[in-house]
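Recall that a protein's primary structure is simply its ordered list of amino acids. Everything else, from secondary elements to tertiary packing, is in principle encoded there. The following example makes that idea concrete.
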Amino acid sequence: MSAQIRVDLASPVPPYEQIRSQVSALAAAGVLAPGNRLPTIRTLAADLGVAPGTVARAYKELETEGTVTALRRRGTVISQRAAAPAGEAGGLPAEVSAAVGHLAETARRHGVPDAVVLSALASAMSLPTRLEP
């Protein structure tokens, strides 16, 4: 799993937020299924080249948002509700939810204001899906 997570230390997005958003997107997309164990804090920190406190903060935020559950002596696992099927979680399929999360992360990384992203998304959503001849 740690091979799927990347931390860009040059990014203006804090490393813990990069980890949190990537794990959240992987869970929403179903890549990480409910019950899958995450690496220990020390293992993931070593793999990513960040401090253990950085990973601990990401895991704590993931637990607060309900994506993961910390189990005593069994580690941190993806929560049952993290990868809600279509029809749940606001009616969004997991792939769409993951794409929206990726869009938000990319926009933050490039410093694009929320209002500009929302405007661009609204504009893209109003485009015709098929051009009439």
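Residues 2-125 form a domain with the Arc Repressor Mutant, subunit A fold (CATH 1.10.10.10). The radius of gyration is 17 Å.
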